[in-house]
Amino acid sequence: MARDAVDLILEQWAEARPDLDASPMGVIGRLSRASRTADVELQRVFSEFGLQRGEFDIMATLRRAGPPSGMTAGALARSAMVTSGAITNRIDRLIAKDYVTRDVDPANRRTVLIALTPAGRTLIDKAVAVHVDNEHRILAGLSGRQQKELATLLRALIVSLDDAPPLAEPGDTAG
């Protein structure tokens, strides 16, 4: 099996501190490195469409939800697992780009709905197709079976950590 930089780190810890079981460093270190590499590759595609990751997430969530009603900012925040302040900043940026609207719900005037504009829908339909192709490329080093196994293991880890609060993205102001 091929070795990576984390193997050297683990060997060094085994030599420096043989009393420690540093094996979690292998898992966390590789998760971190894979996440950073994937983030760079994902952002490359988002940038092709003039979007930041959080903006893409909002538009994709609205697209999955389907027309015509839209979603509340609170529902978008829950879906994206970020703070309300982070969602507000993302929505404001997307409104400025004319990709989403913020309108009062005609059925309940106390509710504000966020919805894709026609330009936003066209853009996200193009962007998500390129995004999915990019994700296939990123994961091409793993067989379909390995991808399913990894997804299962990561799901179990995430479920075990699910008490974590939503995170703000760099550049977003929590509110």
Characterization of the model:
The protein has 175 residues and is mainly alpha-helical. The protein has a single domain (22-161), classed as Arc Repressor Mutant, subunit A (Orthogonal Bundle), CATH 1.10.10. It has seven helices and two strands, in the order αααααββαα. It has helices spanning 5-16, 23-48, 53-65, 73-80, 84-96, 118-138, 144-160, and strands at 100-105, 108-116. Strands 1-2 form a two-stranded antiparallel ribbon. A hairpin with a 2-residue loop joins strand 1 and strand 2 (108-116). The model has no long low-confidence stretch (mean pLDDT 89).
Describe the structure concisely.
The chain has 7 helices and 2 strands; from the N terminus they run H-H-H-H-H-E-E-H-H. The protein has helices spanning 5-16, 23-48, 53-65, 73-80, 84-96, 118-138, 144-160; strands at 100-105, 108-116. It is elongated, with a radius of gyration of 20 Å.
